[in-house]
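Appendix C reproduces, verbatim, an entry submitted by the partner laboratory led by Prof. M.T., so that reviewers can inspect both the input and the predicted structure.
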Amino acid sequence: MKSKAAACLPFVWRWTKIAWLLACLVLLVAYGRRQWDEIAPLAADIHWFYLLPALALIVAGRIALSTAAREICLWSGTSFRHSQMLKIYAVTQLAKYVPGGVWHFVARGIAYSEAKMKTRRIAQNIVVENLILLGGAVCVGLVGMLPTSPGLAFVAPPIRFLTIGAALLIYPVAVYGAAAIIRRDVPARSRLAVVLFQLGAWLPIGAAFHFMIVALGISHVPPAYAAGTFTLCWAIAFVAVFVPGGIGLREALLVYMLGPFMPASAAFTVAVLSRIVWTVAEAALLLVALAWTAAERRVSHLPLAPVPCLTTIEESNPPNNGG
């Protein structure tokens, strides 16, 4: 039988997350009211047309991430259509905002179980997917931040570039090793595809954050630093499983990391704007997935063009025996 402490753990876990969300909401309102005189002009002068490419880049990056997840599922012998995997990815990512547990992992597990994936394979897939996902974000974050961070000015440039080279070398090796957790004979081409999809996904996601900064009229932040800052802050908040969707923690990290380039009120506005745009992009991703699957369903129900059989052709064109 379970002990009383073990029985109370889900209850404590759920209310810890709810308390965190409430605390973040209270702090958000309190800080916003105190700094409103500085935040209001920034919010009023948002250049909205910069947010459209930001949304498009996030959606494109998330599609690439879902493609990488689909490729990893193939390592377990489970094949999803691209639209099907995108729908699973979009729905389960939204589940992480639900307080009370790591529901995006649970939802992903349910989706894989319905695809007849074995329980052991499900656990392996989820672990490998998230390790590779986290590693890709950290790798792109280091590549963007190390050459441009004012806080690392004391580090000699050769050391910075050696660190970048090491990150770009270690990440593919780590993906190759992670694949062996699922299956030892995963083709090298498939492992390389996952590496490229991961790195290719975080680059546009990081670039989207730079567009959000520019949307507030702030143009002196290096694009590489902006991209690296966002991906690293995302990775740190992702590890904190007690924080639903990284809410509050990611924004606090962004405010701190943007400190060398702008006042705290401006960094706060950028962080809140990034959360809004990110959430809208996640909803847009789900709409794209639903539209894609609906289009495929319509196409699959269309009647096929009739193919004339040989006897029909012969009847309509009788042979001319007279020569």
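Confidence is low (pLDDT under 50) at residues 304-317. Additional entries are available on request from the coordinating office.
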